[in-house]
Amino acid sequence: MSLDQPPGQHPTEQRSSQHLPVQASQASVQPVWNQPVLPSRAGPIVLAVIGIVFAGMALLAVFWYLTTFLGADALLVGLILALLPLTVVLLAVRWIDRWDPEPRPALIFALLWGAGISVVTALVFDLGVQVTIAASAGALTGSDFASAVVQAPIVEEVAKGFGVLALFWAVRRHFDGPVDGVVYAATIAAGFAFSENIQYFGLALTEGDAQRLGMTFLLRGVFSPFAHVTFTICTGLALGLAARRSASRGGAVGYFLIGLLPAIILHALWNGSTFVLDGDASVLAYYAVVQVPLFIAAILVVAFLRRQAARTTLRRLHEYSQAGWFTAAEVSMLGTGSGRRQALAWGRRQQRPKKVAMRRFIADATRLACVRDRLVRGQNTAALQAHEAHLLGLLVNHRADVLGQIRPGSAPAAP
């Protein structure tokens, strides 16, 4: 194959712009030059900006709170140490999200929600409990066990989980299934663990015990950076199933509550181990016996979901191929990992316009497959049909850009 001939293309193959078979989809797909106008994106963009700014302000409030009792120096050291496990978790999330990447603003909001809003919620609730106990004149007493094993798991998982639910409502177009739920939940959990780690590392540093700081980093930064992720993805998986099964915004609340239960239980078991077990060695043993199997199970579930997403993409694009929108070679290029790697490698050898067009061709084809899967599953709304037609039009343009052809419906350049 020459450098000028992109993978998935064959000069003798023809494509048509015919509609999908009625039995395959109820959506009416139109060519790019005759597609319906989608609603303005101004509203979602404004909401995204407001959400990110609000969550960012909450994170700044968390930093201010930590500075009041840690000091600026301890806060800085704790922040630097907390960035290490955060980076590891975010790289894992990026791997999970690689097949069908979520919108960057939504991921930024998710991270800030976890690091800012969730932490502020937990702090405010804890302050309310302390004030209530103090105002009871001895009628109520506090308990470290109740705070760590009952209060913290419930409050923290509700706060984190509600962030996933908010994203389900706000970016429903991009929330297609369990993998998306895992991505958003893991990102929120990573943000929460980041702020929490700053506190733990900073406190160990202020005690002046280097050994204690090292053990704290070993337990939280090395052995359990995915602990919060393991808890919260239960909620993300549940809301991902809600998206897959066409649950309405109100119906998703039921799935949210179902996913919240195992998240709280796992969190309570993890926190409770520090009271039941004696010493760091026992905690490490508990981690090896209980947390490692749970973590391995989570990895297997996520790997299965990614493979299922890839199979769905291949199957749905094949249906478009039968209707003439793609060639068989293009389906193989867009719907398989090896095909994508070959296509991206080809793009890297081209000039920037073709390189960008190939990336967009792959990304929008994946989104199209997700949209069609939702249509097939019964989410046959006018907005979703319009989105399908819009993506088909974009793909026609991307193909023309990759091949260096004049886009369909556009006038040729003047001589």
UniProtKB/TrEMBL annotation:
One Pfam annotation reads PrsW-protease
Could you say which residues form the signal peptide? none
Q: Tell me which domain of life the UniProt entry assigns to the organism this sequence originates from.
A: Bacteria
Question: What processes does the entry annotate via GO biological process terms?
Answer: proteolysis
Q: Where is this region: Disordered?
A: 1-20
InterPro entries membership: PrsW (IPR026898)
Record keyword Protease present: yes
Keyword list (alphabetical) reads: Hydrolase, Membrane, Metalloprotease, Protease, Transmembrane, Transmembrane helix
Indicate the transmembrane segments per the record. 45-66, 72-93, 105-125, 182-202, 222-241, 253-272, 284-305
- Recorded GO terms, molecular function? metallopeptidase activity
> What's the protein name?
PrsW family intramembrane metalloprotease
Task: Give the organism the record lists.
Answer: Cryobacterium lyxosi
